């Protein structure tokens, strides 16, 4: 069956809302109980970030920041490295700078907020708030300033250079942080800055990469940073340590130290990454690796009486560890492998947090864009040269889910414990993951369904039979259903790029076609009367159904 015929059949199945499964699909039963709520919808997806802070102020960066802000204006946060790094603001892979701090000939501090202001202004003008990472070390303060800028590139080079070392003077570092926060309050207002997150450094438990000092030196850096933030703004929301989820004891040691010193801690943060591989000519994702990394830190936090009730931000939550790296194992990024993985991962990390009894407030996708690189170059990003990738459309689907979660089950959703032990692997449809999450906000019911497998190989569609039980009285005349799709044929700019022959430089007509292919467009609404409908969902596809009462 051709892709065109499959797309036509899928449309026909959904429009009729009552047909049997096609020959190359397998049946899936999903039930949603609209009368049984299971807790509020927490928008943990609304956090994003990138190594390169200066991309945000460039042409495609400004556009993408605006798209992120439009997801939920005033509720989306952005984290960036290098906000205090020395340099002229010229970006590079895994690099950026603001030149916020230099010293005169007598060693006196010179503060310059011009570039940082431009970055934060760009966020705020587009409905995005800063998740402020306090780092990295200015050249004039570094204990090992030379060489300062790293020479890293994909596959080679040294990442840890002068920017990664402790300060030679902790008093000057504290004053730098104080003056920065004070300036932000003066520029943006007390109430605005109090709504931001402030955290210290990045992955200080990985000394070969982001921290050239000892654990104790990082703890001291964190303490004086928190002191400086609170001195400038006592109501500021401060936390940390944004450590790599490396299954070590760093989080436990951090909590113990901060409890002993009485250092204010408003939230805890760590990173959780997956582990894709290239196997037998295709990508195999590592969903279990990412979830187990998160669960390790959830357990550590839950075990601490002093910290178990603190909000948690997973400061980087991604399929693997290096957004600027390329290679065969990262070939999932441009297409629907990334989007379906994302849809399958976020509900499960939320479920893990509920299981451990901890407060997950956010899971930050370390993905943005890479300015003026080759189209669909294979970086981990949300858009390429101003063209949205399928994964960004999954966040648009998440953004439509509000109110209260509803009880929802799928007979082909892989149980959480199985995902943790085996991920989603195996042959045929028996091992595929067709999962569901649903919500109700007043008279609107939303149902998100994903069809995921760790292996990026072809497989049969899921023929979904959905039963929506106990719809509110407002639905007595039936429901109007609108469907959104992110799959091989919908909201997929990369598939369109491949179809047009992967041009090195798309012309105006091709560029417009790619933008149109990237757009998340709703299907024509249909009416149902009994709360039952069927539809096909391709492998690595995601769909959102939005139900409103028929008038």
TrEMBL record:
Residues 28-529 form the Glycosyl hydrolases family 39 N-terminal catalytic domain. SUPFAM superfamilies: (Trans)glycosidases, Glycosyl hydrolase domain. The keyword Signal applies. Residues 1-23 form the signal peptide. Belongs to the glycosyl hydrolase 39 family. Keywords: Glycosidase, Hydrolase, Signal. PANTHER family: ALPHA-L-IDURONIDASE (PTHR12631:SF8). GO terms for molecular function: hydrolase activity, hydrolyzing O-glycosyl compounds. This is Xylan 1,4-beta-xylosidase. InterPro entries: GH, GH39_cat, Glycosyl_Hydrolase_39.
